[in-house]
Amino acid sequence: MSAAPEPLLRVSALRRHFGGGRSFLRTQRTIRAVEDVSLTLRIGETLGLVGESGCGKSTTGRMIVGLERPSGGEILFKGRDLTGLTPKDWQRQRRDIQMIFQNPQSALDPRLSIGRQIREPLDLHGIGERGGRDAEVLRLMQAVALAPEMADRFPHQISGGQAQRVVIARALAMKPSLIVCDEPVSALDVSVQATVTELLQELQERFDIAYLFISHDLRVVKKLSHRIAVMYLGQIVEEGPTDPVYRRPLHPYTMALLAAIPDLSASRATRPVRLAGDPPSPANPPAGCHFHTRCPYARPRCSAEMPALRPLGEGHSVRCHFAGELGVAS
Amino acid sequence: MPGRLFLTKLARGLLTVWLIVTLTFVALNLSGDPIEALVGDQAPAEVIAHYREKFGLDRPLWQQYVSYVSGIAQGDFGLSLSDQRPAIELIAAALPRTLRLGLTAFVLGLLLGVGLGIVAALNRNRAIDRFVMSFAVLGFSLPNFFLGILLILLFSLHWRLLPSSGDQTIWHLILPAVTLGTHFAGTFARFTRSAMLEVLSKQYVVAARAKGVPRPRRVLWHALPNAAIPIITIIGLKLGDLVAGSIIVETVFAVPGVGRLLVNAVTSRDFALVQAILIMTSITMVLANLAVDAIYALIDPRMRAARSES
Lengths: 330, 310
Hints:
Chain A: Belongs to the ABC transporter superfamily. The complex is a heterodimer of chains A (330) and B (310). Chain A is of the alpha/beta class and 330 residues long. Chain A has helices at residues 57-64, 87-93, 114-124, 133-143, 160-172, 190-207, 218-224, 242-247, 252-259, 300-304, and strands at residues 9-19, 22-23, 26-27, 30-41, 46-50, 72-77, 80-81, 97-100, 178-182, 210-215, 227-232, 235-241, 310-311, 317-318. Chain A has a domain at 104-175. Helix content of chain A is 28%, strand content 22%. In chain A, the strands form 3 sheets. In chain A, strands 8-9-10-5-11-12-14-13 form an 8-stranded mixed β-sheet, with helices on both faces. Chain A has a 4-stranded antiparallel β-sheet with strand order 4-1-6-7, covered by helices on one side. The longest helix of chain A has 18 residues, at 190-207. Chain A starts with 8 loop residues before the first strand and ends in a 12-residue tail after the last strand. The relative contact order of chain A is 0.14. Chain B is mostly helical. Chain B has a domain at 87-267: MetI-like fold (Orthogonal Bundle), CATH 1.10.3720. Chain B has 13 helices and no strands. Chain A binds chain B through residues 65-67, 90-92, 94-95, 98-99, 101, 103, 106-111, 113, 120-121, 124-125, 154, 156-157, 167, 170-171, 174, and chain B through 202-204, 206-214, 217, 222, 225-226, 299-302, 305.
């Protein structure tokens, strides 16, 4: 563990601002959707990225798969910076980084049969022999536990759980080493969620795939992730191995999120923190610590000075001036 | 069974045609005495009686109706009152000109409209988009007779480039086809743009990008066929405008087609001919809508499924 090799993915100081342009008669406000996000992901590892909606976690994922252009920062994938790639280079790069979407039904072209949906990336990227591709489609379907006769069905004829399996199979077709999962199970029934997360875990072990698992559901994230990153208003406020973060959260925001999960005994160690109101607008983030407006422990320093993300041992980092001093009833 | 649904649609279409046959019959009988219009109100009584007998107008109304409907079922639309020839013959003589004009305008409008709509959607809110959409609004809001006269003024009178009336050569086709086609192009451009914008924002198009599908293939293979569904609906509806438009355009450009035939038939109260044209038109519309349904099934698997389940 200590002799850490170069990680699969290293994102540093990633930023994405929207708007800010000046057009006729008006100046648009800049929306800082993502502000200084850094994270690393090793081969075969899952990083859970959690936060409220609008905190920039999806934008971060979209930048990593190249659907969104970063305003600044660096995305090193297998040692290569992706931010400077031309669209043509991206076309080739995409084989290695795939994405799974929140709403699987709408991620499938309604006009194409399941078999053709899965086959398309094979044809596009010239993977395998032309004649062997049908067999490869069946192998992929088997890998995600879809019956072979489903190949002739159309998206509207299958369930949401099956559709997500198709999307996963389509992503697997390119043998990616990283899959960005953007809320992959939140649109599914709870019973189906479990089978899909189990499938994702099983595929990870078989094919050594790394996941960036974006979700607002802390229970799902806990089950899947090796490490957790918590985002608030475009910044990572706490990051660390799953267990310590859940057992002993150090940032008040993480504490509040965990306290909000009904029936999760881990949060009992901390005093229940309840979040009031909505997060502030990313067009006009509060000065100092972005969280101070909603933080029950806020002190004068918090509104004056932005805390840095600082390591507190065991790979656990926190963006809070008073981390470790708060609310822990030992 | 796909066949069963098709038969239902066919039966519905036949019902529509029958309703139109009946409504035409009622409306024209309410609109006045055709014999009076034919021979004038000064004509002697025996002349009027002679014509009444000749056209079967002396019989009770229900008998006229029954013989008319059974005639139509056998392809007999009766004699033109003013011309004494079978109405169907007159229509057949005028039809090729109308078809040539209508189809040219339609294809022109479709290609131009769908093409421009795609370009506009791909360049949303940029200058090209604004320009194309201005053209589209202009295209479908300018009345056909106005645009036609404008084109005649410019191309025939001012620059003397193209003939303004008649249909002797291919050159005669250009102005009327452009007049009629501009209207369709405007409508199709607008609908194509909005249908494409909706589909382009769909997740499967984003997903296609994420899996490395090149842009032309994304647009033409994933987006356009899915956007085609609302576009085809509009095409089906616009076929009715084609008939209405050709009546005006043929009158403006003096093309002796079915549209002009209809206008003349109405002014001379040519009972049988008006009926025949209206019925032929409605049959065309019914067939066109059946064709649209068939095309739906071809491009949209959801429609196919709806068929196989019913």
